């Protein structure tokens, strides 16, 4: 069986000092880390520092980006291409509801980003909040076989997670559309509820926002995830 996926999504937070401290906390948790596919997604500005730390210490943390340009390399001021992030990360979150809401991300741009990532070694983690976004993904990509994070809008950053049963039923609906996708759940995951999501038959991991920035909170999540 694949290891459960646990993603730390830092969003628009964090300095070089923060990430150094965070990684130092996990340097001594090698055994715990290696029970999971633990993926740290800091802002672009911190990827290089994190990459260096991970290479030097060999800790079992995989890096992810929080976004990728919908364009290939070119004259697109401020954008970071799939090939550029491939130097640092194995994953990229795309279509997060915050980007869909505030930054013009659409099903069509999600599709473009997936296609560009497919030219690299970076795997997409596509966030969806309802089944219509899953159907759009299927229409654009066909048999999508990477990670989908189901994140209901009411649950994100609210302290009000979906019920594990409901999340599992939604994951099952997603699998009916995209049988080869790996489904994870995100939205107010903490150390108290993480195992109730991971124990669901259709849920293979969690995406953690708020509780991922403080290394001690995130460590508690890993400790309670079994
Ligand atoms: P949250 O965020 O854990 O703070 O709810 C999850 C996410 O938006 O990825």
What does this structure look like?
The chain is built from ten helices and eight strands. The protein has 226 residues and is of the alpha/beta class. Strand 7, helix 9 (194-198) and strand 8 (205-208) form a beta-alpha-beta unit. It starts with a strand and ends with a helix. The model has no long low-confidence stretch (mean pLDDT 97). It binds 2-phosphoglycolic acid (PGA). The site of 2-phosphoglycolic acid has 13 residues, from strand 8. 2-phosphoglycolic acid is lined by residues 9, 151, 156-157, 186-189, 207-211.
TL;DR of this structure?
With 226 residues, this protein is of the alpha/beta class. It contains 10 helices and 8 strands.
Structural class: alpha/beta
Query: Can you list the strand order of the major beta sheet?
Result: 1-2-3-4-5-6-7-8
Low-confidence stretches: none
Radius of gyration: 16 Å
